[in-house]
Amino acid sequence: MIKANDPTLKSWVEVPKNSDFPIQNLPYGVFKTDYLEPVAGVAIGEYIIDMVYLNEHGYLDGLGLPIGIFNQRYLNDFISLGKPITNAVRERLSELLRHDNSQLRDNKKDRELALIHMDDAKMLVPVRIGDYTDFYSSEQHAYNVGSMFRDPENALLPNWKHLPVAYHGRASSIIPTKVPIIRPKGQTKGPDEAAPSFGPTKRLDFELEMAFIAAGKTEMGENITTADAEDHIFGFVVFNDWSARDIQAWEYVPLGPFLAKNFASSISPWIVTIEALDPFRVAGPQQDPKVLPYLEYEGNHHFDVNLEVDIKPENADALTVSRSNFQHMYWNPCQQLAHHTVNGCNINVGDVFASGTISGSSPDSYGSMLELSWMGTKSITMKDGSERKFINDQDSVIMRGFAEKDGLRIGFGEVETKVLPSL
Amino acid sequence: MIKANDPTLKSWVEVPKNSDFPIQNLPYGVFKTDYLEPVAGVAIGEYIIDMVYLNEHGYLDGLGLPIGIFNQRYLNDFISLGKPITNAVRERLSELLRHDNSQLRDNKKDRELALIHMDDAKMLVPVRIGDYTDFYSSEQHAYNVGSMFRDPENALLPNWKHLPVAYHGRASSIIPTKVPIIRPKGQTKGPDEAAPSFGPTKRLDFELEMAFIAAGKTEMGENITTADAEDHIFGFVVFNDWSARDIQAWEYVPLGPFLAKNFASSISPWIVTIEALDPFRVAGPQQDPKVLPYLEYEGNHHFDVNLEVDIKPENADALTVSRSNFQHMYWNPCQQLAHHTVNGCNINVGDVFASGTISGSSPDSYGSMLELSWMGTKSITMKDGSERKFINDQDSVIMRGFAEKDGLRIGFGEVETKVLPSL
After folding, report:
1. Which DSSP string do the residues of A359-386 spell out, in sequence order?
2. What pLDDT score does B150 carry?
3. Best residue in B185, B343, B351 to probe A by mutation, most A CBs within 10 Å?
4. Looking at CA atoms only, how far is residue A417 from chain B in angstroms?
5. Beta carbons of A195 and B162 less than 8 Å apart
6. Contact yes or no for A185 and B342 at CB 8 A
7. Residue A1 has pLDDT above 80, yes or no
8. What CATH homologous superfamily does B132-420 map to?
9. Looking at CA atoms only, how far is residue A157 from chain B in angstroms?
């Protein structure tokens, strides 16, 4: 067992009940304040540990950390140090923060300067993202979409159970929580219309996804096996892959989604390490037909992470419209990475690999409005009585993820995005 | 007229007949030598001007260039200075290099240190590429592919003449000339096979493309009009979008090409500025049906650039297998950029936007082996008598581009890539 994961550990930092950030989590992020340039931080309870301060004041001595490693806009250089070092940092933090360690706890000045309340910080995208890939790995989602757009009898395309289908997305428009998006405009054409028309999307949608962040760089020609894949995974975030369904329907044949997706994707601020998720491993589904040898795997590489989506109209309370789970994946991250690199495609630290929309088998676990409203054929009633088939202007979409087991809860925080009207 | 484009200008640097790099070109690149770290250079004749040396020795004074702007691995910061400055640098170089300017010509030491023979340099990818987009904008290519895979009567999909179809590609695997690629492996399944199999691609192909490099950054929500688009285009390169046709056929429905493309794309080393291409503008095709207003444009934004592809077997002479032209585009770069950003998608300096395979109307102008061999139904005979339907191991594929008019030739140099066998 990883020592920092010990469920009996308590911290001298107060951690509220149901916090996403107990001492067993210690996720990494990048934050700024009114007086601090962007620096690396680690979440605990309602606080952010300023990693620059800790490193400069000797609390991380002996771990082989270069000077200035946390004093950067992005975590890429830190992640590039490799798992033996990044995991040792997590272990050291776990030591420093445990209730019976007085080193930082009893140094009033250091404690006050090293711990910043989350309310005083703004979270940023934590890694410089070279490339972003979006998979399509939830069977129920692929089945739902195939049923709606094609045929329920042949909902899954012939390749779907043989390979983790994916496409490349846009890295430039990945944004952190609390940055609003603007309703995109584009071409749409209904089946009965003679020509396309132009205007704001009428079918703005979220996609409930998780994403992993690459920990290791490979060279062109190299491939990563399923057995080695987790060494190349730093951690996970919750990922909202914004979509404009009407633009998508008109543009996507034959080369896939483009403007329907590339205007924005929102990510949760904290990268929860794969090591912190270790207690929440579960077995994946039996894969039938049998996969090709390079996609076979041993062990449990699915994770039991509860996922929720709220819609919050401007002047009303939020309503949870979907409750799904990261374990509803047919293809796990190790298979995704093995497939992605089997042709020699190289990856870089900080690359983002999203899961695709994660839908469970019950209708209230579907991960998009497209599925929840079944292509706009039914509505969801908000708490103020208004109805939604897709997302309205001024709505905020809030996604959450948390794993829970034996009294231990490891969470991702929220990713919240408000939709502003088209310009 | 742009002064540096004056066709009567001569340089004191010897420029061989049919050189791609007369004084009217002055393209930008990044090179290294045995004793120099990567720095910015400009091509003239058979030489590279070391821009660091010129800047440090006062030859570029008064242009507002920051110290160290050329002493970088990538041109992004230089390009970010904006067109008024980058164009002023080209004008200054044109002045310095003209036959009657003695300033550098007659300073033996500076001349010898500032001019490096191309044989002594290795060219690198010149920009840090945030995102790479591949369009599909040549009508003949789309028609050929549609005829082969679907139906000659309905070869173009319904959206093709309404919007410049595109998808996101992989930025990490874009490589410079003279870097070999390794034949990718992957899943393939023929129509008569019960299950997919795994192995090296049997249908490795090139795609003859041009690409433009973004000069300007936009914010999310902003869009670029066709009228403003050229301000956001720094210049052009020749682009070989390597493809594995058998992998592509099995994987690409419904989300587009992925592993069939993301193992490698090769680019020519010199970015020829859009200003240098100004004399080679031509009108584009009449677009029918009429495009939506945001895709309308005024003026000539197509370019008459000859494109050639050679295949060179390991121990035989090269054969030119395709002669195409950049003007065979239905959608021009301004329309591509206007479409790409009409939904508010943001772009960054250094982003790459490739044209898609450029095929002319005659079969010897098709830009891929898929089309030249018509899906493998006919062969091309090499000079050593061997035959090609696709690309063999140890073959080199060499692409060239050059514009020629009234005795002036502006070229791109070559992008040459050797194919090594699968590991």
Report:
1. --SSGGG-SBHHHHTTTTTS-EE-TTS-
2. 85
3. B343
4. 14
5. yes
6. yes
7. no
8. Fumarylacetoacetase-like, C-terminal domain (3.90.850.10)
9. 8
Q: How far is CA A4 from CA A53, A92, A279, B1, B354, in A?
A: 21, 9, 11, 68, 48
| Residues of chain A with C-beta less than 8 angstroms from the C-beta of B168 | 167-170, 258, 262
A250 alpha-carbon distance from chain centroid: 28
Question: From the candidates A129, A138, A258, which should be mutated to test the interface with B, based on the most B CB atoms within 10 A?
Answer: A258
Nearest to residue B114, comparing CAs of B173, B69, B49? B49
At residue A36 the predicted structure's pLDDT band, cuts being 50, 70 and 90, is confident
What percent helix, strand, coil does chain A show, rounded to 5?
A: 20, 30, 50
Q: What is the mean pLDDT of residues B370-383?
A: 97
Is A159 close to B344, i.e. CB distance below 8 A?
no
Domain ranges of chain A: 28-124, 132-420
CA distances from B184 to A40, B262, B397, B423 (A): 38, 10, 16, 9
pLDDT score recorded for residue B143: 97
Q: How many CB atoms lie within 10 A of CB B155?
A: 17
Cβ contacts below 8 Å, chain A against chain B, sum to: 184
Using one digit for the tens of pLDDT, what is the confidence trace for B41-91? 999 999 999 999 999 999 999 999 999 999 999 999 999 999 999 999 999
Q: Is B324 helix (H, G, I), strand (E, B) or coil?
A: strand
Band (A84; pLDDT cuts 50, 70, 90)? very high
Average pLDDT, stretch B18-47?
A: 97
Q: How many CB atoms lie within 10 A of CB A299?
A: 11
Is A301 a residue of the active site?
no
Comparing B28-124 with B132-420, is the CATH topology the same? no
Is the alpha carbon torsion for A113, A116, A120, A122 positive or negative?
positive
Question: Does B184 sit within 8 Å of A344, measured CB to CB?
Answer: yes
Give the gap in angstroms from C-alpha A134 to the nearest C-alpha of chain B.
Answer: 10
What is the token pair recorded at B405?
A: 């008019």
CB A159 within 8 A of CB A292: no
d(CA A307, CA A22): 18
User: Using an 8 Å Cβ cutoff, are B143 and B328 in contact?
Assistant: no
Which CATH number describes the domain made up of B28-124? Answer: 2.30.30.230
- B338 CB neighbours in chain A (<8 A) are none
